[in-house]
Amino acid sequence: MQTNILKLDCLRKTFGGVVAVDDLSLSFNKGEVTSLIGPNGAGKTTVFNLITGFLKPTSGKINFNDTELNHKKPHVIAAMGIGRTFQNVQVFSNMTVLENVMVGRHLRSRSGMFFSSILPPMLRGEEKRIRSSAKERLALLGLDQYADVPAGSLPLGNQRMLEIARALALEPTLLFLDEPASGLNARETVVMGRLIQKIKSMNITVVLVEHDMELVMDISDKVAVINFGKLIAEGTPNEVQLNPDVINAYLGT
Amino acid sequence: MKIKDYIGIGILIIVIAAMPDLVGNDYYLGVLIFTAFNCLTCTGLCLLMGYTGQISIGHGAFIAIGAYSSAILTTKLGWSPWTAMGCGVLLAAITAVIVGIPTMRLKGHYLAMATLGFASIVHIVSVAAVDVTGGPSGISGIPRLQIFGFALNSDTRNFYFSWGVVVVGLYLAVNLIHSRVGRGLQAIHGSEDAASSLGVNIAVDKIKILVLSAIYASISGSLYAHYVLYIDPGPFDIMHSVLLVTMVAVGGLHNIWGAITGAVLLSLLPEFLSFLSEYLQGIGIRYQTDYDTLIYGSILLLIMLFLPEGLFEGLSRSLKSISGFRGKLAGRSSERAD
Fold this sequence. Notes:
The complex is a heterodimer. By secondary structure, chain A is α/β, with parallel strands linked by helices. Chain A is built from ten helices and ten strands. In chain A, helix 3 (97-103) packs across helix 5 (124-140). The radius of gyration of chain A is 19 Å and the shape is globular. Chain B has one domain (2-336): Orthogonal Bundle (ABC transporter involved in vitamin B12 uptake, BtuC), CATH 1.10.3470. The A-B interface holds A 52-54, 73-75, 78-79, 83-84, 86, 90-96, 99, 102-107, 109-113, 116-118, 120, 123, 126-127, 130, 148-150, 153, 163, 166-167, 169-170 and B 172-173, 175-176, 178-184, 186-187, 189-191, 193-202, 208, 212, 254, 329, 332-334, 336-337.
């Protein structure tokens, strides 16, 4: 039997009169790749933002390994081992690629403002560790040749990879990827799919919002379909593909 | 990159050491001492504005807090200048927290508005609270600083001391920038959402850096009071705060050396303008001091148009391309690497 790593219980979010997420109950199995799919505006990204603390739920519960996440701030949720990427890539374009990933080590290092400015030699060891583990993540994603390039100058595909490298530097147990393949060409999408499987093999639970159905059906263990903030189907990729409600939601017949 | 910064500090120390002999004139030495005070404030302001992306149009107020703490506590209560300076730092830090807490939680330009309002409050208080601040006539009779019984009673000594403080301030800032904390701050500038998704506590870090930059400003104010020995509200008005922002922006927001460059250039500009006016008067052209503002404005406009990344980065890039140091990516990457 699979164990849940994350459980949503009657999660609801309204913006004024608009119900973006409508009493959604859903659980995510540890070690699996789960995809959230649904037409545009179905509320998938809102669900991500609720779980990672960027939005406060109107009602309902979010449980991560039996801890409630409801009113926690994003940086606290990150500290609990939940990483994420963004639909509109948000690399720190003013920093180099390596420095971007080094920011991902923020929670795995301690030094504060006082020692950082006054006694940097004391922190040389820590800096070295931050740098080398950041380099490992870059190598994992094949970005090591760009380490010293300003992140803003990378092409979009590499920026998406960089966001994932940065999130992996956090050493998350649960990783949310918001449309990792959008804007990527066919070849890059294949690479992304392989990467997500590699992440899964590192014992990281992956939750994916994605529009590229080929990629979703290829790599997901479980697919959950949302429409108008409601769960309309969940199951294995095959089950979902044959579900009449899903076909209806997508094709509108 | 850090090595380059240390080399930069080394060069600065050599220039400072040689400067009094080169200048050999107490008036210009005095101008350079005021330049040092501006450099100190701008170093802190650059950490806040350039690296963390938070705009403050009220740093003159933190300078005033430092200067008035030093002046009031030493002249009215007879405290030692060092204790008074420490109290100024504490007071500036506390006010920075008070200004920061409600504004730093919000995104956008709220901090700029809040600091602007805060600066005008401090200015009004310094003019109106006559019993405490002496009002428009100010406070005189501020004692000189003494270091182990060694009085800073000449311009040369004051020059070395104030630039020494700048060097220390720069050293601390450079270390901070290249640390875990500094990367967190730059991440906040890049994307607040992404930074917090990686565990950076953006609200707290923004307040911390505001406090640090207020401390830089406060120390600069205390040093000013103990050098000039007399203060009045004049130098701490809103225009001075705006001028500080201009210094950092002209030099280059994204580089601490840019802030220093901007502070030095804009501090020396009035001297250059008075040369210019004398020269123009000599050849029979009337020059009015009102033209100063015009020239300031034009300089700012030209830099924003043609060197938007600031004088420092802009000039170093054009120098590089002139000297054949080309290679688009390679040039920038070697600049960024350690």
